[in-house]
């Protein structure tokens, strides 16, 4: 493998639209919320303008999930919000959340991602 094969994937991201989303789950329901978000992620091909959708668990709060998502532009974010997979997720999430999601708009500007991660060489596959 050449050094170029391990060069990081990087990009400038002008015009992208992003969100951090904080989901506070009902006590003990974080796993159920993860099931809902994972089913949604399995359908992301229906949203070609959704360039990234990342789910994270809060290491300090057992009932909190964080989402980071970014879209090619505002039209793609609107398409995301009107997609069937998004509506299916939003129909299920309220039953496991303690309140409405908190949204923080944070538009991505530049990306750096280790090529090995992008290629799936350093992460455990769960699928």
Describe this structure in words.
Strand 3 and strand 4 form a beta hairpin. With 127 residues, the protein is α+β, with helices and mostly antiparallel strands. The mean pLDDT is 90. The protein has a four-stranded antiparallel β-sheet with strand order 3-4-2-5. A two-stranded antiparallel sheet has the order 1-6. The two termini are 26 Å apart. The protein is globular and about 45 Å long. The chain contains four helices and six strands; from the N terminus they run E-E-H-E-E-H-H-E-E-H. The longest helix is centred in the N-terminal third of the chain and has 12 residues. Helix 1 packs antiparallel against helix 3. It has a domain of 84 residues: Alpha-Beta Plaits (2-Layer Sandwich), CATH 3.30.70.100. 26% of the residues lie in helices and 28% in strands.
Kindly summarize this structure in a few lines.
By secondary structure, the protein is α+β, with helices and mostly antiparallel strands.
SSE topology string: EEHEEHHEEH
Cα gyration radius (Å): 16 Å
Form type: globular
Strand order, largest beta sheet:
3-4-2-5
Report how far the terminal alpha carbons are from each other: 26 Å
Number of discrete helical segments: 4
Regions with pLDDT < 50 over 5+ consecutive residues? none
* Beta content: 25-35%
Summarize the amount of helix as a percent range: 25-40%
CATH topology label of the domain at 12-64 and 73-103: Alpha-Beta Plaits
Number of strands: 6
């Amino acid at each position: 493998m050449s050094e170029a094969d391990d060069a990081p994937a990087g990009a400038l991201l002008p015009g992208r639209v992003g969100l951090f989303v904080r989901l506070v789950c009902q006590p003990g329901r974080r796993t159920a919320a993860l099931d809902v978000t994972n089913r949604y992620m399995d359908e992301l091909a229906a949203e070609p303008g959704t360039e990234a959708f990342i789910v994270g668990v809060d290491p300090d709060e057992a009932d909190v999930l964080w989402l980071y998502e970014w879209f090619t532009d505002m039209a793609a974010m609107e398409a995301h919000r009107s997609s069937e997979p998004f509506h299916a997720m939003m129909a299920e999430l309220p039953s496991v959340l303690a309140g409405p999601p908190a949204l923080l708009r944070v538009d991505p500007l530049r990306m750096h991602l280790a090529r090995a991660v992008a290629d799936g060489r350093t992460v455990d596959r769960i699928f």
